[in-house]
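Database export, one record per block. Field names are fixed; values are copied verbatim from the stored entry.
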Amino acid sequence: MWMTRKIGRQLLSMTALIMMTATAALSQQTSESTRETEVFRPQYDAICAAGAQLSSGCDAVRARDIVDAATPPWRAVGRVNYASGRTRHHCTGTLIADAVVLTAAHCVFNFNDMHWIAPRDLTFVAGFQRGDYLGVSPVARYVLDPLIDLETPVFSIPPSRDWALLVLDEPLGASAGKITIKSVTVPARPHLAGYAGLRPQVLSVAKDCGTITSSVLPILQVRCAAMRGDSGGPLLVQQRTSWHVVGVFSSLFQRADGIIGAAVPADRVQQALDDILGG
């Protein structure tokens, strides 16, 4: 996923765990943390997140199924791209309306320069796969959780508010398709689709996300094989022949029983989506 930044600080917000990388920190991590016996440390960088060891986590990401991004429902998923003179990163996003993409709020924040990214500096590429794509559009504007202060040059958003709706210039969903959002019905075994950093040119799907047993918590807790690049990706549940987005992937955090993925329940964005479509 992501953004060049030194990771010497100990007090990182857990929404930033999956997304910050730095040349200096990565070189240090390469020497210290790539041994098979080295335990994954999310406070430095969420390189690979499944299992207790970096090697097993990366293996789990590599083992994810690569899907055909030109076919439904995957064609409605794409890359959210950002590039500036000092920073380049990508996230994953999903068309949930003709011209609206659901992704994570931290995907529109520049952690290197500590400011919110201008919408015009973001691009959504639908159905991206090894350089091919079904459609591309600049972002006209974006909508965040109403409690987020865009005037504050600090990212201190809890995972439960880590969502963003990107309003596109072009209605890509009319041709690429879209995936509707839906409240999760428990128990549910979701899949995570994303452009993981190990394979940023292809869309892959993690089917190892475990079971969501509660929809009452402010976040959905999953155990997907995930890493940078997957942020903003959809948690998908299939009901008969239809797929629905039940969550948007935010970040990773360490718990006593292992590494947990946090996702925002998709129905949390319903009011904002209704306002966009009604306006």
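Remark 1: Residues 23-33 form the longest helix (11 residues).
Remark 2: Residues 97 and 277 are 8 Å apart (CA to CA).
End of record.
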